[in-house]
Amino acid sequence: MPQAETKAWRNDAYAKVTGKAKFTDDLKFPGVLHAAPVYSDFVHARIKAIDTEIAEAVRGVIRVLTAKDVPGVNHFGQIIRDFRIFADDKIRYHGDVVAIVVAETREIAMRAAQLVRVDAAPLPAVLDPEEALKPGAVLVHESHGSNLINTHVVRRGNVEEGFKQADFVIEQDFSTQFIEHAYLETEAAVCVPRPTDGVIEVYGSMQHPFSTRRFVAACLGVALSEVEIIGTPMGGGFGGKDDTAAIVCARTALAAKLLGRPVKMVYRRDWSMRESYKRHPYRVHYQMGVNRAGRITAVQCRIVADGGAYCSVTPWVTWRSTVQCCGPYVVENVHCDTFGVYTNNVVTGAMRGFGSPQMNFVIEQVVEMAAEKVGISGIEFRRRNMVRQGSVTITGQKLDGHKVAIEQVLDTVLREIDYEKKLAKCARGNGGDELYGIGLAMSYRGVSLGAEGVDFCAAIINAQVDGSILLEVGVHENGQGAESAMSLICAGELGVDLSRIRYRRSSTSNIPDSGTTVASRATIMGGGAVALASRELKKKIAEAFCAKLHCPADEIRFKDNFILGKSDADRIAFADAMREMWLMQKFPFAFGVFKAPRVTWDEHTGQGDAYFTWVYGCQAVELTVNKKTGKVKLLNAVAAHDVGHAVNPEMVRGQIYGGMAMSAGFGLHEEVKAPDGRMTTLNLNTYRIPRSMDMPEMKAIIVENPDPVSPTGAKSIGEPANEIFAPAIANAIYHATGQRHCSSPIRLGAQPEPTACEEGCAK
Amino acid sequence: MKLFVNGKEVEVPPTAMQKRIVEFLREDLDLTGAKNACDIGACGACTILVNDEPMRICIKLVKDFAGQRILTIEGLAAPDGTLHPLQQAFVDCGAIQCGFCTPGMVMTAHAFLLKNPHPTRDQIRQAIFKNLCRCTGYQQIIDAIEKAAPHYQHETAARAPAQTALA
Fold first, then answer.
1. How far is CA A399 from CA A271, A443, A615, A720, in A?
2. How far is CA A344 from its chain centroid?
């Protein structure tokens, strides 16, 4: 495999560390107008009228836009078109936007937004997904006929038989909370009508430029070619900058189009928190049968996901939960029913993990509960049931196309943290004020989209006459280092210095729609496309120089900025070769496409080859619980993840550390509160994400088993890193206190300490 | 009224006195490194140095800074663009992901190391407590600050007495 430079490297590090990187709000355009959204105070209501007159009379206000100003389609959605650019018939949650105010300054727009009046007839709100499923429940979308968004199932073996074979049955209810992505940069857009041809240029903070383009074009009623989404540094996404971020762009683009001037809309934190979609809260009823030999005989589970007011990607999120509902364990008899449900709560959608953090919080506790019943350690129980090379998953997929590395990552973590020895020292509720515990969790995860959707990606390599190289890939820089990984792969494949590669600023008008930068798919899909484009380019170059280098084309090598024949003496410098190709009238240009290998799915049985490959991870944590205050202090953490091949190892570690921190927030700190459907956690003082002092020293161990179906050998890390630390914490707390906690965030009696904020900080 | 921003004297027009200082820096001076992420002083993304002290400025007004010596992220690198050793350490340690917290984080770390050039990792962890990062889990940020500390040890030894704030 070609080795690229492997120290920590990012093409954007210099700009970001000097403050020169221009995020959306940092961009300036002459004559720019500013927009602000208008909310109502309703949670569920039928709209009668929206009065914009008073707001429009404010000096400096240019215009107030509502649904009636949308020339194209006001309804959109990736799966069901139930989302609105502007609320039209009803308010369905407290974050629904009825209008935007466009004004000369942001202050004026914000002030005038308070003056828009919404006349509406309040409706009863349904805030509990179980209630929403009952006959006669208030309907969030009448035309949908019920509040059921979707169902998924797994039907495998015979669960009745399976439970008959069980000596013990573990039956437990679990629940998880709404989680806010809390990207440091809020949603933002600047839209500029291009004077020369009227194309609307969109600069914005979003992780799906192509779906943003679809929504913007549909809203404006123009062709896709009339909208250009231009890549702009993004201050974090974590799955959260898809639908909501796209609507913010669409509303801003509408204003720019109608007014013929650049318009900027930068979200205040409270707008972002109130309106943006969250991670789905889950309620899970889980039953596991086990026999005395410590083998799982059956699993039956019922999963209910609160989808909030609009569908968003609920069917896809809950699909992954369903496929992975038994964790990395072999279970012959499975009966799983999953329901995505509309409520009048805040919309829920994609968030890093995508349905797996909730399920792993359940499964990785249940296996330890089961182990205790059987009288063996949680580790031994896992070993007896975990998937191995050639195992068949609960959906009938045989794991034989890649290295099944679950035991490898488990053993790596056990060894590194000295788990077995420390487990014996756990307090289990006895001892002094600080109760010590250690715990772990592990998972496997299907890579990329799987049977959720169309999965392919493009890359363009355009070598220049002086030997410099322009690279462009259909994946988006979310802050994770995608552009850097793509550049490293390209340099490695072509055997040239990294300094030759210039990653082109991305634009939806340059490269074909390659899908969303989600599902931890950028490195495997984008990197795959880069590798294939590089190989295509090398083939063209080799054919051009095989005679000159006295070497068959397929034996020509690319190394150290040279193109080499059989011996190192037969060589031509890369830059010279590019000039000569120009003279030969041959373009050193290549277009590479990586298509995900085939996946299958039967919706009725929940059987199929759900994902084309899988990754494996294990994380462990040591902590203490203060007996009096309930305060949990994380002491030390170790993670091991099989990523296939680490393209940029420091960035891989960064993903692991960041994922663990976010998962610690899920397990211990974070909770969106909205008692009557009106959110009260509207800023980073009341919504408490982990701070430096909340995190322990962490060690991330990269395990590499290059994947045969990945052109680079690389797989995924973004989401795998963020789906098991919370259950590891839950297990450690159990070992410390002897108490199980089946709801997240885990509350041990004491409230979190006040958050740090200066005077003047809102409560 | 005057400010001293990154070593340069800046005359503040009377109309800007009531502006938030973060907006004055970002809009009037085009120093967009300091970010607005919460507007209530809860996240630290707007941190700059005022007379060598770290300050979160999203809730402060321009008029409160008369005569003060301000250092923003844009003033940390050498005039020729060479990164400050602390910035270089952030790059080398992989401490940068989305980059939105980075300017505030670097400035907080800079102020801390000026005061304590021999920190333990725990002290570093404490020093950046008020700066939120959602990407990194802080691990490589702490690595970077630790890596840069020796530079401040040499600096402190060679350093002239600190300038006092200009009235």
1. 45, 14, 11, 18
2. 24
Residue A750 pLDDT: 53
Please give the structure tokens belonging to residue A415. 């060894």
* Distance between B65 CA and the closest CA of chain A, angstroms: 17
| Mean pLDDT confidence for A200-216 | 96
Q: Would you call B135 and A654 a contact, using CB atoms and an 8 Å cutoff? A: yes
Residues 6+ apart with CB under 8 A from A541: A556, A558, A563, A577, A581, A588
Whether residue B91 lies within 8 A of chain A, CB to CB, comes out as yes
| Strand-pair partners of A266 | A188
The position carrying tokens 């969106």 is: A672
Contact A320, A83 (CB under 8 A): no
If you count residue pairs, one on A and one on B, with CB atoms under 8 Å apart, how many are there? Answer: 199
Give the residue from A518, A9, A30 showing the smallest Cα distance to A262.
A30
pLDDT in tens, A99-151: 999 999 999 999 999 999 999 999 999 999 999 999 999 999 999 999 999 99
Q: Look at residue B159 in the predicted model and tell me its pLDDT.
A: 59
| CB contact at 8 A, B3 and B64 | no
**DSSP secondary structure letters along A402-435:** S---HHHHHHHHHHHHTHHHHHTT--TT-SSSEE
| Contact residues on chain B for A658, CB-CB shorter than 8 A | 97, 134-137
Strands A282-290 and A45-51: unpaired
ipTM summary value: 0.96
Phi, psi of A50 (to 5 degrees): -120, 115
**Helix A356-374 / helix A314-323 crossing angle, nearest 10 deg:** 20
A 10 A CB-CB count for A531 gives 25
3-state secondary structure of A162: helix
Q: What angle do CA A218, A221, A227 make, to 5 degrees?
A: 70
Query: Distance (Å, rounded) from C-alpha A276 to C-alpha A128?
Result: 19
Pairing mode of beta strands A97-103, A61-66: antiparallel
Q: The tokens of A600 are what?
A: 């299958």
Instruction: Name the residue type at position A57.
Output: A
